[in-house]
Structure to design on (93 residues):
């Protein structure tokens, strides 16, 4: 954020749909099953420990980023589109 000249006093919030990832981020324990975790996860966990990032659970059905990351059924796509305030071109006439 500082590289982009964005200064925030409060911690950033990240919503995740994996209870395991949430647990690892909040409780950094050395565990044999975490050896394969990528460097970016360790960076995020470090930010949580420093109090710069808060991770919160969000059910998969509520993740609005899904519209950008994966193919969705039409009803889910329309729901997320409405929540983000994006209008269908057909509705703009």
């Amino acid at each position: 954020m500082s590289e982009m000249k964005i200064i925030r006093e409060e911690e950033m919030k990240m919503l995740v749909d994996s209870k395991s990832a949430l647990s690892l981020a909040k409780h950094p324990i050395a565990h044999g099953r975490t050896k394969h975790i990528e460097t970016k996860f360790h960076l995020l966990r470090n930010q949580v420990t420093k109090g710069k990032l808060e991770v919160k659970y969000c059910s998969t059905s509520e993740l609005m980023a899904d519209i950008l990351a994966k193919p969705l059924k039409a009803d889910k796509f329309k729901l997320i589109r409405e929540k983000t305030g994006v209008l269908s071109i057909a509705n703009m006439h």
Remarks:
- The CA atoms of residues 67 and 73 lie 10 Å apart.
- The chain has a mean pLDDT of 76.
- The first strand starts at residue 12 and ends at 16.
- The two ends are 39 Å apart (CA to CA).
